[in-house]
Design brief:
Order of helices and strands: HEHEEHHHEHHEHEEHEHEH
CATH class: Alpha Beta
Radius of gyration: 19 Å
Distance between the termini: 23 Å
Largest sheet: 9 strands, mixed
Number of helices: 11
Strand content: 5-15%
CATH architecture: Alpha-Beta Barrel
Helix content: 25-40%
Bound molecules: SN-glycerol-3-phosphate, calcium ion
Number of domains: 1
Number of strands: 9
Structural class: alpha/beta
Length: 300
């Protein structure tokens, strides 16, 4: 973790100088571009092979494994709180069915934060995680600051939550995550929804964004005005597709990046590195971290 931190620190220092010279919200600010050949490994929903996904324990687990970047999913409760959970219903990853049997289909947006905070979000994974709670975005960001980790924040099904782009940016701002160091080095907002990313970019041009999915190469250019990364499902990645993404300049980088998901074996990661990807989103980030570090030492 320290080695990677050093890479980011050096790049960050360079970009910090530029960030000081420009307003933090300026699209002309120069965010840290990862070093050539450096593969960024993202822990998908934290470290979900070791702890219940999207919980604070999952973040701590990723930190203890030396994972710098974690991915999460942000949604909104009935009373307007931002919470970190993947599914749009609560039944898979909490004990909501037992606690609120009459509230099927248990949509996240139909429960208040107080109700959601009564749920056990860890026991489904393993008994020793009983009592873990669904975190709010504020709690999640606070922990990342304490562990010195970075965030790939997914706006999950934003069409269900009108205005969630602005609300999420407000929450990020209140937590100090829209200052120069955070937007240049520690935060990427991603979504399957291109309109949500366009809105995010319009409201806060300094924030880096990633489009989930694999739009046809011919259409990539239309996203380059407000998207920095294309994050496709791994089977969609070919050398030609990576080349097509890299040929485009993004709002913050001389070329757009590609981070496929969800890549859980060293072999699959090595094949994707060979195709030229920039990062890998994984349920086994420690496995991928080790594998990609080895490949960096012995270039393909
Ligand atoms: O980060 C990629 C991945 O999170 C997208 O799919 O369904 O796991 O949110 P999903
Ligand atoms: Ca996600």
């Amino acid at each position: 973790m320290r080695h990677r931190t050093t890479v980011f620190t050096v790049l960050g220092a360079l970009c910090g100088v530029l960030a000081l010279a420009l307003p933090a919200s300026s699209p002309r600010a120069a965010p840290a571009a990862p070093a050539a050949g450096h593969i960024t490994v993202f822990g998908h929903r934290g470290a979900p092979a070791h702890a219940p996904e999207n919980t604070l324990r999952s973040v701590r687990s990723a930190a203890s494994l030396g994972i710098d970047w974690v991915e999460n999913d942000v949604q909104r409760t009935r009373d307007g709180a931002l919470v970190v959970i993947h599914d749009t219903t609560l039944d898979r990853t909490t004990d909501v069915e037992q606690r609120y049997p009459g509230r099927s289909p248990w949509a996240v947006g139909s429960f208040t934060l107080a109700e959601i905070k009564t749920l056990d979000a860890g026991g489904w994974f393993a008994p020793r995680f009983r009592g873990e709670r669904v975190p709010t975005l504020q709690e999640y960001l606070g922990l990342l600051d304490r562990t010195d980790q970075n965030l790939l924040l997914e706006l999950k099904q934003p069409e269900l939550y009108p205005g969630i782009e602005r609300q999420t940016l407000d929450a990020l701002g209140r937590a100090g995550w829209l200052d120069g160091p955070h937007v240049t080095r520690r935060l990427i907002v991603q979504s399957f929804s291109a309109p949500a990313l366009r809105t995010t970019h319009r409201l806060r041009p300094a924030v880096r964004t990633g489009l989930l999915g694999s739009p046809p190469a011919a259409r990539l250019g239309q996203y380059a005005a407000y998207v920095d990364e294309i994050n496709p499902e791994q089977r969609a990645v070919t050398a030609a597709y990576v080349e097509a993404v890299h040929a485009l300049k993004s709002p913050h980088w001389p070329r757009m990046r590609v981070n496929p998901w969800t890549v859980d074996s060293a072999g699959a990661a090595a094949a994707l590195v060979k195709l030229g990807v920039d990062g890998i989103i994984s349920n086994q980030p420690d496995v991928i971290e080790k594998a990609t570090r080895r490949r960096m030492l012995r270039p393909l």
